[in-house]
Structure formats: C-alpha cells, structure tokens
Amino acid sequence: MTFERLSPVFPVRDIELAVGHYRKLGFAVRRYEGPDPYAFATRDGIELHLAQVTGLKPKKNMSAVYLYVDDADALYEEWSGAGTDGRLVEPTDTSYGLREGACLDRDANLIRFGSSISDRAT
C-alpha cells in the first residue's frame, strides 16, 4: 500500500469568489457537479479542494498548505500581478535554507511557498 496524492481542502465563504481567486493564481478550476458548493483547483500536478462552509470565520481559520516550488521569487512576481483580493508576502531567505513567501486568500487559507536557497545560488 502506498499513498498516491494529497489534496488539502480549503474552507471558503463564497465558492464563486474562491474559484475566481484561484483562477487568477493560475490554477485550472472546475466546479463539483453535485448539490454542495465545492471546487477543484489544479496546477502542475498540485490539487486544492475548495468547500463552501456556512459560518466560516476567517480570523479563526487555520487552514494552510506548504507548496515547494522551483523559484519562489518567480511565483511571487506572477501572483503579484494576478489582481487577487488576498494578501501576498514577498519571499525572504530563512535560516533553514529556504526562500519563503506566502499567499493568504480572503478566507484566511494560507499557502506558504518556498524554494531552496542553494538552487537559487547556482
């Protein structure tokens, strides 16, 4: 038995706004064709699920995922020009060898992203 993939589920207050946000970030997004407001956001083999949750309080939302990328600065530049309504944090070097940034959507779902500092130096 082996694990095949992982798909974090982000709670959102409005599925349509969330779908628009993740599309602007370059994800291909498709809606679930069932009775519940749900969507799938995919990009480069990464998949996030979006589930509309009644009564979600962003200040209490602790949903997060870490995304390892080959170039955190390039991703930051791309997402900076996306025109989303979330918050974006510019990458900085860490003491543990990664260059990290972050993206927070309007529902406080956090995507931290990072790339190796040593890969950047070559």
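Next protein, fold it too.
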Amino acid sequence: MTRSLSRSRSPDVILLALLMLHLMLGILFATRTPLWQVPDEPAHFNVIRHIAETGRLPVLEMGDYPADYLEEIKSQRFPPTMSIEPIAYEAHQPPLYYVLATPVYLLLRNASLHVLVHGLRVLTLLFSLGALYAGYRALRLALPDHLWLARGATAIAAALPMRLTMSSGINNDALAELLINVMAWMVLATTAADWRPRRALALGGLLGLALLTKMQSYVALAILFTALAYDIITGRLALRRGLGLGALAFSVAGIMVAPWLLRNVVTYGLTDPLALGRHDLVVHGQLTTAEWLAHVGPWVALAAFLRTTFQSFWGQFGWMAAPMDGRIYAALAWFTGLCALGLILRWRRAPRTQRRLFLLSRPLAIMAVWMLVTTMGYLWWNVRFVQHQGRYLFPALTPLSLALAAGWRTVYRRGWALGAVALGVGAVALATISGVRGDVNVTATAIPVLGACGLWVAHWADARWPKVSTLLPGLGLAALSLLALWTVIVPFLSP
C-alpha cells in the first residue's frame, strides 16, 4: 500500500504552535532588524529590483563587489545617506527566488523603503514556514515511532536565532531549504510500489526548482540519488527500472535548468555555465583561505574556523560583526556536548540487532548523505574563501536538529546523572584552571553547574509530564532569540 505523505489526518496542535512561534518570532526579526543588516541582503534586493524594473536577469559585472565601499557602509551601519545600489554581487544566482519576489516588489514599490523591505522579508519568512513543515513531515516518515523527537527537532529549527535572522531577511536560503526538505519528504514517502513515471516526473520537477533557486540545492540532487541507489542496491527497485526512472527524473530537472545555463553560457562563456568563474573575478578583494593561512598559520586558522562556525551557527548577527555574549556561547557549547553524550549513550545502550538495522536503514542513508554533502559543500567553499559562517549548514538543519533533539532526549531521560557528573567535573576543571592562572571566572564555572541543575529539572519534569521536556531546548532558543534581538541586533546594528 502506498504511504501517504502525511501519516496523520488529525492536526498536530504542537506542530501548529511551533509554526506560530516561528511566525511570530520571524515577524519580530523582520520588522525590528535594521535595513540591510542581514548578510548579503542589499545584493539580493538589487537582483529583485533589476528584474522588476527591467524584466531581465542581471549580469554579474566587474565592480559589483565594491570591497572598500562595502566595508565602509557596513562600518557606518548602512546609513540612509549611502546608497546600496553598487552592491550587486549576487547577480549570478539562480533566478527562481527573485522571480517569485518580483510581484511583491511591484506591489509595494510605491510604498516607503521600509515597507518594501519588510514585505520581501515576510515572503522569505513564509518560505521558511513551509521548510519547517516539510522538515517535520520528513522526520515523521523517517522516525514513525518517535513523534516527540520530530517535535523537538522542529522546535530547535523554529527558534534557532541565526535561522530566524536568515529566514527574516531578503535571500534565497529559505526557499532552497523548503525545496530540499520537500525532496526529503517525498523520497522518504516513496515506497517500492510508488516508483512510477509520475513520481519520477514530480521528483525531477522538484529537483529542477531547487537547482533554479540556489547553488547549494545540489543537496536535493544527492538526496534523490541516494534514495534511488538505496532502493536499487537493496532490491526494492529493479536495476533497469530504477535507471530508467532516474534518467527520467534527472532529464526533467536538466530540461528545466537548461535555459538558465544556456543564458549563462552566452553571457559568461562556454566554460562558465554557473558564472562561478566570473564571480571569482568580481569578488577580488575578498579574503581567500590561502591568504588567511599564510597570514595566521594553520592552527590559528583552524581554531578560528571552528569557533566562528560554532558561534555563527547559533547566532552571530549583522555581517558577522555582532556576536552574542561569550557566556551564551559557552552555555551552548555545554548543551552541544550534552547532546553528543546523549547520542553516544543512545547508541551504546541499543541492542546489537537494533544497531545493525539502524545502520542499514533507508532513512539513515538519506539523512547521512544529506548532512555529508552539505558539510562537504561548506568545507569546499571555505577552502576557497574565508567564509566561516555556520548558516551555510542550514540546508541540513533538519537532520542536524534531529541529532540535537535525540541526544538531548536521551541524556535527560536515561543519562541525566552521568551528564550532571560530566558537567560537575567540567565546572571543577574550569575552577582549577582559572585558579592556577590567578583569574577566577565565577560565571564560567557557574554555567555547567546551572546546566546540571537544568538537566535534573528536565528529568524530574519528564516523570510527571512525559516527553514534554523534549521541547525545552526549542523554548530556550526562543527566549535566546528574543534576548539577542533586543540586546544585540537592535542596539548594535541600528544606524
């Protein structure tokens, strides 16, 4: 029997509440974040404006990345007296998001600039809502017996401060995430009996839309390829039929993308269909990884990469110029460590047969490739340029949030005592190190102690209200997002 894309016909009240939470937080971020203080926002806005006012796609030209002017306007926090028109380095991006945003621009172009920008930001937020919903449905199919894990993962994704920042700005990230999550949802819902030409056409069309949205959407291609390969290797799908359906799906995607690629070939040359070569020429002045390594050395560069990636995954605002308080990142590091401990405990305490089934499972194969390809893309980009921005991992936020939720749920339910001991040992170690250095940091020592107390509270609450503690990280991140908005974004990024 064919599985429905939705396993439940009754509305999930908690899911609706999480979507409403994301919408309300997103509207606050969209309306309170100062203009152009979302990474790359003016460059994305200028692509929309060009399409709306000329009816043509823009061409990436030399001078579209005015490095000195960009640094100056950022340092002055984008004052109204400085125009954003010279900032146009996103002109090489695939066109779908900008075409969809054009009607909003045309509808609001006679209004004030604030109204226009806020309207475009809300459009991105709507795409983000769709991405959350699709990600939740994909998780429900991947883990049909773990409803609360899907809810906990969705709560984390819905309230993550940096994701709220990007989902409430003008950019193509949320639409790409939506299409990637829908691809995962569809392939996880596809049983052996569902592999028919109609499904291949639908998946190919979805892949074409994803590739026309953002270059990082090659993740959707990897997800589709993994599903097909798994089903062929495991015998769920005959080799000849699988190859035929795969060829059909990829052909549909290729036909959809071909006009844009041909236009790029005509515009940028036969060897540059993605305009990446033109992009590298235009962004001359952007710090390359080779220059950075030569300047600071490999160990300093690695430490900076890891630290900045971690911080900017959770929240480092503006154009990476407005981080949160260091104590917040310390608390998040302890939380991440607890989640990692929970995943280890979950694995070690599972029966051997269950581990084997898990390792051979179709959902795990899809999730693993999803995270691996996203991470490899992030590393590849950082091999070329210094782009230590954790938001580039958001195409895989659904499986990443699931890992955090699963680790947290295990550690507060079955490993809270071990987690509390680990936090206590960490607190003692920090106190000892700071004492030896003669610089006792009470706050740094108190964070793991408070974390141990919070872990006990979550365990205690779980005994009385089962499973609700799974949502605590998401609720905590919602509070953190509000704190970041009012104590970092608004005061430090306003002109």
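About the second fold: The mean pLDDT is 93.
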